[in-house]
């Protein structure tokens, strides 16, 4: 059975000015339940992890100041969020959800977090609406606790480079970071992933899918991972306000299908996190994310 991490806290942490981008975390599970793609049994309520699991990835000084609301104004501005206790509770819970997803994926082959994919968070700072790096923390959790996991592959297909993730694992050979992103998009100063594939503005379905199809099978053969984290951002859509690529909703679905079928064929456990999506119409965002979950059920169950 597909396990999906979700909590009401995902959708309600922020002041009114930030409300619209967060609505997808509320509407997505409602849509999946209404159409019958999932049932309540698929959903589990994530819990905050032990502090040590966060500190495997983030520095003690940063995590302490984050919890206590002691970030400087400049640091807070870089995150894009006004600090609040509810915001920190949300970020810690999301991170715990991705860790629990990793544990469940080892048992069932796949699991998904309705939120997560906070790939702009560095070990010692937050950036770009990311405060704690959930996939990095979950990868470190597996490496620390699961002897069967000796090599992790992070497949980051959000339109923005996973700069925080790349920096965190820069000197960690057990984690291979792959980011396929808009070349001229945020962040303006890119970090170096193990493999970066920068894309020109207005890259379309055919170009995008061919590049991914030429790259990912080779990576699986060369890296030989024991576990995969997939960041399935839908900000690659042509309708996205921030993405600058030109994928259709069908192209985005084919992207997810390519990744998931490859992982399934190679019998690789995978955790999927939603990442970004900033189309003008909320329905475009929710429908694109819903396609990912529909494919999870179709491919794995």
UniProtKB/TrEMBL annotation:
Family membership noted in the UniProt record: Belongs to the histone deacetylase family.
Membrane listed as a keyword: no
Organism of origin: Hymenobacter roseosalivarius DSM 11622
UniProt superkingdom: Bacteria
Biological process terms in GO annotation: epigenetic regulation of gene expression
Membrane-spanning residues: none
InterPro entries the UniProt entry points to: HDAC_classIV, HDACs, His_deacetylse_dom, His_deacetylse_dom_sf, Ureohydrolase_dom_sf
Name of the protein in question: Histone deacetylase
PANTHER family with a match to the protein in the record: HISTONE DEACETYLASE 12, HISTONE DEACETYLASE HDAC1-RELATED
GO molecular function, one term: hydrolase activity
Domain Histone deacetylase: 22-291
Keywords on record: Hydrolase
């Amino acid at each position: 059975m597909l396990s999906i991490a979700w909590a009401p806290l995902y959708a309600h942490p922020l002041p009114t000015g930030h409300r619209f981008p967060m609505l997808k975390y509320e509407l997505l599970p409602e849509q999946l339940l209404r159409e019958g793609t999932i049932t309540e049994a698929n959903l589990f309520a994530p819990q905050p992890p032990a502090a040590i699991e966060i500190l495997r990835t983030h520095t003690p000084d940063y995590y302490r100041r984050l919890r206590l609301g002691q970030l400087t104004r400049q640091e807070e501005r870089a995150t894009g969020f006004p600090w609040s206790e509810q915001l920190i509770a949300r970020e810690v819970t999301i991170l715990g959800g991705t860790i629990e997803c990793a544990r469940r994926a080892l048992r069932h082959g796949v699991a998904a977090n309705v939120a997560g994919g906070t790939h702009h968070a560095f070990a010692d700072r937050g950036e770009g609406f990311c405060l704690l790096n959930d996939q990095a923390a979950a990868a470190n959790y597996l490496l620390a606790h699961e002897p069967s996991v000796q090599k992790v592959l992070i497949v980051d297909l959000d339109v923005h480079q996973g700069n925080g993730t790349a920096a965190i694992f820069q000197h960690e050979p057990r984690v291979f970071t792959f980011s396929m992103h808009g070349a001229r998009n945020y962040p303006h100063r890119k970090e170096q992933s193990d493999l970066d594939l920068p894309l020109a503005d207005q890259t379309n379905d055919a170009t995008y899918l061919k590049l991914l199809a030429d790259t990912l099978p080779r990576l699986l053969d060369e890296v030989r991972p024991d576990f995969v984290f997939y960041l399935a951002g839908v900000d690659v859509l042509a309708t996205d306000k921030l993405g600058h690529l030109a994928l259709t909703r069908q192209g985005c679905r084919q992207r997810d299908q390519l990744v998931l079928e490859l992982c399934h064929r190679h019998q690789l456990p995978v955790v999927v996190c939603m990442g970004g999506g900033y189309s003008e119409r909320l329905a475009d965002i929710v429908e694109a994310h819903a396609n990912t979950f529909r494919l999870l059920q179709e491919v794995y169950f």
